Amino acid sequence: MNDFWLALLGMTCITFSCRYLFFSKTVPFELGPKIKRLLSYTAPSVLTAMWVPIVFLGHQQTNSDFITSPFLIAGVATVIFSLKIKNTLAVVMFGMSIFGALKVLF
User: Fold this and answer.
1) Closest to 68 in 3D by CA, of 92, 103, 95
2) pLDDT digits (tens, 9 = 90+) for 62-101
3) Do the Cβ atoms of 81 and 71 come closer than 8 Å?
4) Which of 8, 12, 35, 100 could form an S-S bond across to 31 if both were Cys, CB 3.0 to 4.6 Å?
5) Which segments of the chain are extended strands (E)?
6) Parent domain of 11
7) Beta carbons of 78 and 91 less than 8 angstroms apart
């Protein structure tokens, strides 16, 4: 077994054990209110760290201007749509559709 598969197996075990502790009803494990409040900021932080480089640096791979970048236009449209609709799947599909259409047009 090479290092890749060993690392993958290790990461799988770590991820499963963390998820099992939080979602299993058989393990009496409860986080305090302060920890829950702190953890509520992790999803927006991770998502922001993922989309900011794509939106603001994605236009550098093409010859288009920043304002007409499909990354920026689709990102802004997705944010506006997400404020109106609270269905995550619909927002993701909408954003991907807008981005795909803009990539074809530009």
Assistant:
1) 103
2) 555 777 888 888 989 998 998 898 888 899 899 999 999 9
3) no
4) 35
5) none
6) 1-30
7) yes
